[in-house]
Amino acid sequence: MEKIASFTVDHIHLLPGVYVSRKDKVGEETVTSFDLRFTRPNVEPAMENAPMHAIEHLAATFLRNDTEWKERILYFGPMGCRTGFYLLLKGDLESRDIQELLLSCFSFISDFEGEIPGATEHDCGNFRDMNLPVAKWWSKKYCQDVLQHLSYDNTHYPA
Q1: Cα dihedral angle (99, 101, 105, 110), rounded to 10 degrees?
Q2: Do residues 58 and 112 lie in contact, with contact meaning Cβ atoms separated by under 8 Å?
Q3: Best exposed site among 1, 60, 67, 134 by fewest CB in 10 Å?
Q4: Could you give phi then psi for residue 15, rounded to 5 degrees?
Q5: Which phi-psi region, left, alpha or beta, contains residue 40 (left: φ > 0; alpha: ψ -120 to 50)?
Q6: Which Pfam families does its entry note (predicted)?
Q7: CATH topology for 5-152?
Q8: In 112-140, which positions are buried (b, 16+ CB within 10 angstroms) versus exposed (e)?
Q9: Are 105 and 43 a contacting pair, CB within 8 Å?
Q10: pLDDT digits (tens, 9 = 90+) for 34-88
Q11: Could you write out the three-class secondary structure of 7-43?
């Protein structure tokens, strides 16, 4: 079998960032898949499941309620390697197009207080596996270290 595109990315030189992973045509619509990379693969430790799960619930809720973007949000979820998340949006977009949206989203998570949306036995298949304090820490770090400093090197995959 042929390697899929995401397995051809140079993970040795990949930095935390916001990358366009792929663009697909679905009918007349373009769907842009973003790679929201939180850690440097195989260099920094992978994220733990519990904070990733909390981020998933909070980001998905925030994004699907954002007045400007909610109609374009298709999916937000974790990478299996636990180094970040995928965000799929309707539209032919680039990393800088979503910088403000991501800053708002991850600032919301860094400041979040209260019950995590959907974190109940009724609403989630693994509701006990959440860690809000660490999710807040990761979100703040991503805002400060990545989203506020987007550059060519952390928005374009290494050659």
Answers
A1: 40
A2: yes
A3: 1
A4: -100, 160
A5: beta
A6: LuxS
A7: Gyrase A; domain 2 (3.30.1360)
A8: beeebeebeeeebeeeeebbbebbbebbe
A9: no
A10: 999 999 999 999 999 999 999 999 999 999 999 999 999 999 999 999 999 999 9
A11: HHCCCCCCCCEEEEEEEEEECCEEEEEEEEECCCCCC
